[in-house]
Amino acid sequence: MKLLFVGVALVSAIFTGCKKDKDPEPNNTEGLVLIATGYTDAGGIKVSLYAKDSLYSQYTPLFVEVRDSATNAVIEDAHIEIMPMMDMTTMVHSAPYENPSSTDAVNGLFPCAVVFQMPGDMGWTLDVHVHEHVNGGEGEVTFPLVVMNPDPTRTRVITPLNSSSSRLVVSYVLPTEGKVGINDFEITLHSRETMMSWPAIENYTIEIEPEMPSMGHGSPNNVNPTHTGNGHYEGKVNFTMTGLWRINLTIMDGTTVVDSTAYFDITLQ
Amino acid sequence: MKSLAYGIFFTLIAFSAIAQQQDSILFFNKGNITETVFSVEEILVRPTCACVGECSCGMTAEDNYAENRFSCTDAILAKNGRIELMKRGNFAFEPVMNGMASDRLNLTIDGMKIFGACTDKMDPVTSYVEPNNMKSVSVQHGATGSMFGSSLGGSINMETNGATINANKPISGEVGVGFQSAALGANALFSLNYSRARWAIRANGVYRRFQNYRAGGGEEIQFTQFEKWNGAISAKYMPTDKDVIRFDFIMDEGYNIGYAALPMDVLFAKAKIYGLTYQHYPSQTWFEKFETKVYANTVTHSMDDTKRPNVVMHMDMPGWTKTFGGYADGRLKFGKHKITIRVDGYHTNARAEMTMYPNNEAPMFMLTWPDVDKLDFGLYVQDDIQFNIKRSLSFSGRLEYLNTSVIDDFGVQQAAVFNQDVSVTDHRLLKNAAVSYTEILGKGFSGWLTAGYTERSPSITEQYAFYIFNAYDGFDYVGLNDVRTEKAIQGDLGFKYDGKRFQARATGFYYHIYDYILGGIDSTLDAMTIGARGVKVSRNLESAYMTGGNLELSYSPLKILTLSNTSSYTYGNTFEGDPLPLVPPFKNVSGIKWSHKKGFVQLECESAANQPRTNPEFGEMKTPAYALLNLRASYYFNFGEKRLTLNGGIENLLDHNYRTHLDWGGIPRPGVNGYLNVSFTF
After folding, report:
1. Tell me, what CATH number does B383's domain have?
2. Is the peptide bond prior to B557 cis by the omega test (within 30 degrees of 0)?
3. Do A33-147 and A155-268 show the same overall fold?
4. In this model, does residue B276 exceed pLDDT 50?
């Protein structure tokens, strides 16, 4: 009997081992949507931009793939900087963004993120500047983007109560689906210093209060989000049943309330 | 004549002053208290014979029985001085014994565990056995009832009739119809027994349809209607004179049941109950009886708010329980010792859902009972020692192992919101022990003393409720998975005198309860139910106590005349001195009865004192005192062996507008109610 177990374990080990050997390069873009592909103006680099979904005006993780345009080999060591831009004809502005945190690719991709604070069929572009460290090539590519309006709203641009401070961009990250029970809660917070500069706010205090608008009740034992880095605030939100929930936010600079109007809705199926 | 009537009336009022014992008004028909002097343990619904093994008793018609079979089972229970009924509508009341409700009682049918599927307790087990299918109800207080399971307040076991093997009378049965005025109610019932030499089969059915009733003064109480039917089939086979095999099936369905005190009604309530029993009567003198049983039952319950006006949001609230189990017991006899040993076990699953449907939004779903499995094993031993003709001592003990787990991950996630981890299986060992001493103190005069220790596990609601709205106090209830086991030390004392003309029975009880489970307000939590006052979470009170007693007197100065009086009182406090909730006030029933060979006329006065001791945190209202007059009469005609029985009466003769302290929502009980029943036995 014991022998049989050992046998089974051995066979399955060999089987899984073989499988790995056959597929040495797992499909790292599986489940991702290809947004655009292009070649840099110099340096012979092919750049592909992936996202988890079509683009919406929200906090949007993006994945940059870098290849040698001649050999099509994936390059996993590169310095990448991105710059989102919105050309509204009357004015041009940027958006909050996060460059890849390292020159080493993760699974062959360089993760970065943009908070698209407004939708747009036209006008949005993303500049990707690449300096790859394999062949030493360097160049830039600009992708035109289509950014749609999500339902429900996932980003709010707020005029603070003390109008002397800059506008705030609050964007919803988690939970995406949401479940009854305890959920990780995450938002990002940025300020509009200038049209071109949207730095992360790292020292604010945020309180959350979930409620069911049609019932008027909330949920217990939520954990207010605290800053974890790059303008991300993480806490816990609890849902006691399925249906439409509204997570009300109170944003404070120290003890001064900056805003108490922002909220995000989520429907649990 | 008029002055005589007034004289009787005032005498009765003075005699009773305060009181009530039975829940007569609500039901089509009531038994009469004068005739009913209950033994300590049994309420006999119909006379039974005491033969060991299979019997073929003739059915001697009795006044009580004629009336009882038209009543609802809960009404019959209520005639016991220590049982009260908690009312939420006009249907299926929850029994409350010694001031304790169903969470603290064992309610069984032929020893079978059945669990209600309604989170609001709209479906007490008592509704599944109709009186014309009930042989007896055994009522045991506190730890003495632990044969049927661990409980604090005691056990109520309803024994069904079953088929009767009587080859001398192959076909027997009865048909009956009855009407009552307060709710324009109709009852119809039948039973049919067919017997051969070695086997018999019995079918039994009841149909009831009641409309909204009128309270005293004429006001119609909306949402008190109901319709139900109950059918039972029992088959019995005796392969030898010492073996009996019995199969029982009960099906009960209620529809459109109004619950005036709740924000919604019951769309349907359905139960199916199966039992297979084997009994053996060995030839050895030391081995009296062996019995084993397997059983299964399902209860389904669905609420309905579609008929209510101003419903903010439609909701569905279905609930299910599925139970199977079995037991085996033996009765042994060694000299002065009579020993009963029982091993039992059951498995039950309970699940209740709530889905609300807001306009243009996703439905809101939650598990109010998070799919809970309970697995339970028990060992019960009882030793009755008859020292001599006057003195006897009885020991009983029960050890029970209970394993409770939440099997739906949705429920586990839900509970995490309250920082409760219900993914771990809950194990409990429950211990019960009782010792009883009985002595015959003189001619017709006896007394008994019982001391016991009991433990009970929390109910599914107390342990796992997820925002279950309680319409009594207006709070949403949340369970606590590690709420401690409730324990009690209890004592019971009683005296009985059985004279030729005079009978009396007095009992007193005391329960000191540790870790008393009661919901406590948690002001940090938001109520879920729209309009609820807040949230209560289960907790253990350090201790509480309950004490009370009852006194039953019966006096027959003439053979045809009986005067009777039954009164009872319960008092309960928490360790902090606050009144325990839902404790009935002092109550009394007095009766005067003229008997005739073939019938009787009876006038009774039931009354209750006001209950000023309320628990405001529990949302209790003070309940005013009341007194009612009921008039009842019965007469029968014999046609050979067949009999036609008429009984009727007028309840709440003076159309008094009243309610009892345990009634939910301050809703008055029915006003003047005339009833007439006709039944034919063959």
Report:
1. 2.40.170.20
2. no
3. yes
4. yes
Q: How many structural domains is chain B composed of?
A: 1
Q: What angle do CA A203, A208, A212 make, to 5 degrees?
A: 160
End-to-end CA distance of chain B: 39
Q: Which of A179, A185, A214, A244 to mutate to test the interface with B (most CBs of B within 10 A)?
A: A214
DSSP run (H or E) holding B592: strand B587-596
What is the mean predicted confidence (pLDDT) over A260-269? 92
Looking at the domain covering A33-147, what would its CATH class be?
Answer: mainly beta
What value of ipTM does the predicted structure carry? 0.80
CA atoms within 13 A on the CB side of A216: 9
Residue B218 vs residues B26, B109, B521, B629, B676: alpha-carbon distances, Å = 15, 38, 38, 17, 20
Cβ neighbours of residue B241 under 8 Å, at least 6 residues apart? B53, B54
Label residue A70 left, alpha or beta by phi (over 0 means left) and psi (-120 to 50 means alpha): alpha
Could you tell me which CATH number the domain at A155-268 has?
Answer: 2.60.40.10
Residue A13 DSSP SS3: helix
Give the range among A109-118, A191-200, A243-252, B3-12 with minimum mean pLDDT: B3-12
CA distances from B104 to B95, B107, B352, B645 (A): 11, 10, 21, 39
Give the Cα separation of B86 and B661 in Å (integer). 9
- Assigned token pair, A27: 């499909």
Residue B141 is given by DSSP the state E
Residue-range definition of the domain harbouring residue B547: 2-681
Interface contact flag, B362 A218, Cβ < 8 Å: no
Q: Which among B356, B412, B417 has the least Cβ separation from residue A221?
A: B417
Distance from CA of A183 to the nearest CA of B (A): 9
- Round to whole Å and give the CA distance between B566 and B583: 18
Sign of CA dihedral A13, A14, A15, A19: positive
Listed by start position, the domains of chain A span 33-147, 155-268
**Mutate: best of A185, A209, A215, partner B, most B CBs <10 A:** A215
Instruction: State the DSSP string of A94-153.
Output: ---EE--S-SB-BTTBEEEEEE--S-EEEEEEEEEEEEETTT--EEEEEEEEEEBPPSS-
Give the C-alpha separation, B251 to B253, whole Å.
7
**Chain-wide mean pLDDT for chain B?**
84
